[in-house]
Amino acid sequence: MHKGSCLCGAVEYEIAGELGPIVACHCSRCRKASGSAFNAMSPVAAADFRIVKGQDCVRDYRNAAGVSRLFCGTCGSQLFGKRDSAPETIRVRIGSLDTPVSGKISAHVFVGSKAGWDEILDGMPQHQERP
Ligand SMILES: [Zn+2]
Ligand SMILES: [Zn+2]
């Protein structure tokens, strides 16, 4: 069981199962959305994911491709993403977890568009786009 929340505490969620492999996405959209070099995310089963507090505060930024980024409307913390094309998977922004994470970043994706000021030094696989 994992638990997570936004910065202001309005939104809390739980994950009943295990986290999937942690991926760092360096695409320009994730950099904008996170305000940082990459977005660290982990896929979890949608059936295992539950918002336990603050559903009313959750905002959904959806693009034309049916990709949603969900965040707290009060503090702006990114919480998770989902796609119309894969509704069974929730991509949790693992920086929002409150419980310890045992794994490490397993791969870097969209390295072809990473920030020039960011250096990837962990030796994990790097993919120019999606693997
Ligand atoms: Zn918040
Ligand atoms: Zn991305």
Structure description:
- This protein is mainly beta and about 130 residues long.
- The chain has a single domain, classed as Metal Binding Protein, Guanine Nucleotide Exchange Factor, Chain A (Beta Complex).
- About 5% of the residues lie in helices and about 40% in strands.
- It has one helix at about 30-35; strands spanning about 1-5, 10-15, 20-25, 40-45, 50-55, 60, 65-70, 80-85, 90-95, 105-110.
- It has a seven-stranded mixed β-sheet.
- The protein is globular, with a radius of gyration of 14 Å.
- One zinc ion binds next to loops.
Q: How is this structure best summarized?
A:
With about 130 residues, the chain is mostly beta strands. It contains 1 helix and 10 strands, in the order E-E-E-H-E-E-E-E-E-E-E.
Q: What is the topology?
A:
Elements: E1 2-5, E2 12-15, E3 22-25, H1 28-34, E4 39-45, E5 49-53, E6 58-62, E7 67-72, E8 78-83, E9 89-93, E10 105-109
Parallel strand pairs: 3-10
Antiparallel strand pairs: 1-2, 2-5, 3-4, 4-9, 6-7, 7-8, 8-9
The chain binds zinc ion (ZN) (2 copies).
**Any ligands, ions or cofactors bound here, and which?**
zinc ion
Report the major sheet.
7 strands, mixed
* Percent in helix: under 10%
The DSSP helix count reads: 1
Query: How many E strands?
Result: 10
Describe this protein with a few key phrases.
single chain, about 130 residues, mainly beta, Metal Binding Protein, Guanine Nucleotide Exchange Factor, Chain A, 10 strands, about 5% helix, about 40% strand, binds zinc ion
